[in-house]
Amino acid sequence: MILRYSTDYLITHVKGVECSGIRIKGGGLGLVRCSGTVAGVFTKNTFRAAPVTVTQEHIADGHVEGIIVNSGNANACTGKLGIENAKKMARMYAEKLGCNEKDIAVSSTGVIGVQLDMKWIEELFNTVYPQLGVNDENAWSFAKAITTTDAFTKQWGVMVGECVVAGVAKGAGMIAPNMATMLSYIFTDAKVETDELKEILKDAVNKTFNAITVDGDTSTNDTVLLVATGKKRVDVKRVKEAVTRVCSVLAEMIAADGEGATKLMRVFVRGAKNEEEAYRAARAVASSLLVKTAVFGGDPNWGRIVAAVGYSGVEIGELTLELCGKSWRADDAFSWSDTQKVRVLDRGVETGSREKARDAMRREVVEIHLDLGVGDGKACIAGCDLSHDYVRLNSEYTT
Questions:
Q1: In the predicted model, is pLDDT for residue 178 greater than 50?
Q2: Which of 78, 109, 181, 208 is catalytic?
């Protein structure tokens, strides 16, 4: 994938946060030291991985001292031994930090149904722990350590008054509404109480990580944690806006890094009966395999888009459809070197612009703009195309 993002604020710029990590063939291990209040959102998959169960229990009191993450092995569908191994990871880190093991959050990502090699985990831990620090290199090493099939690491942060809100994420496949095959950790040095933190995170996740799709699958390990170290005071409303912004960028990075993806796709819906129906229509289009393959091939077959909206079950009036193609500028991931927007359906009538639409569909970012013509509801879902490499990557995942 050609898209790349950069940021001036990393998780190590948040006061009270230290981290480190290592990524080797077969997986990695990352550590964060972060004493503060915490909130979490987790997978809705019935088969919840052992670290999800353990972490939900550990952060129930709203406090955390550290986070330990391994990649390469999901520790999912591993029974009682899997639970015990997740607890061992927490205990191992707690002993070093001098805290209760229940103050440690644990995450895992990778292959499902394989027991953790705890000797391997301990060896990596003994390498990573002494390297805990607060420089940019530490932030990038942690971001790399938690990846699996990711093509690039994902970090983003913003300044809010005197405090920083910064996050890191991993994710590239098994991406669907209800989060993704993803781990994400958001940190701020603002002082925020646990109840407020929970509301901030829940609202942000619904608008961002729950609004991306690559392949329609929901993982066993999805975890998003928001930690506030309480070093600085700032208006909580501003913190909420910043958290949503950071989550939004991280979510789009995950969508852009969809396994085998060559293009980022955004589906904007307006004029829906309400917000719920807007999201339903946008999700149907962004999840359609026929739409995704058309985006991959640069094929302006907008009939596939209309069909997806039609089977979404939402109320539709006189439908207007525009296709917008954008190219990324190398020096700024949020600017465009050129943009082409073509209206192909105007209040239910075809405009004869299929050839112009073909050029738009060949750009690196393809936006689909739909006006359902019945109300004020609006929504946006981010996704990507579906390429030959998606099949190759996922058919060879364990081999």
A1: no
A2: 181
